[in-house]
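quick one: NAI bound model?
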Amino acid sequence: MIPRRGDNQTVLITGCSRGIGRAIAERFAAEGYYVIANDLDRQADDLAGLKAAIEAAGGRCDTLFADVSDPASVEALVSNALKLSPRIDVLVNNAGVLSVFNVEDIAPDEWDRIFDVNAKGTFLVTKALLAHFRANGKGRIVNIASVGGKRGAPGQAHYCASKAAVIRFSQILAQEVAHDGITVNSVCPGIIDTDMGRNNYPDEASLQAVKDKTALGRLGYPEDVVGAAAFFASDDAAFITGQALNVCGGILFD
Ligand code: NAI
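yep, here:
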């Protein structure tokens, strides 16, 4: 059998029940990785479906429930992941939430909810795995941020600020851990056709406006995003760290 780049490697991916996270999980499994797929316990049925699909395709997958915004839940997630696989090679922080409000309508609790999952969740899961990566002398951290973290749109100040936090967090961490063989990069999707993407642009007129702003003239699909995550996880990206790559069909050019 031809060797695959994920053979004998384990990836932990958060927020895998649907959308981009599910597509990343299926792609990594197809590349030979043992996938430990996380989501909230209320997503149990969808997560079971992901595990079944990966196994039906000949891959390996186990699932762990955890809320990435909750420190105790994240500690349990990482310790249970390390029981499933004594070595974890790659972490993909994908779990995320979005809501749309102009600033004067963002309730303080809603600001916290968005930051708790998107920014604090990325921090918590990453922090919990850092000692493990350092001990291995290698680790790949891939954070799913957003073009919103670079530019953003009205109605999304809280979401875009949380994604800007992910990008800057990744850049600083990349410098702190580089000498331990750990790379940290962000993927910045544009508008992707998932539950989140559709909720953001609920009617045909707003969807068309986004397509018109996109050089390639369409929404992205989850499958459009997975290659960037797989690349950052691979040895092909060994000399790349602290970067934030747009996967947006040409909505942004910087
Ligand atoms: P989605 O809403 O379809 O999926 C998000 C997943 O995260 C779900 O499975 C959900 O259950 C899980 N999740 C939410 N809160 C969680 C928590 N506290 N703990 C664990 N899991 C949790 O969203 P989509 O579109 O697949 O987004 C994935 C990532 O990509 C997110 O970080 C999102 O911000 C980012 N993104 C999405 C874009 C889009 O247009 N769809 C554009 C740019 C970035």
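The first strand starts at residue 10 and ends at 13.
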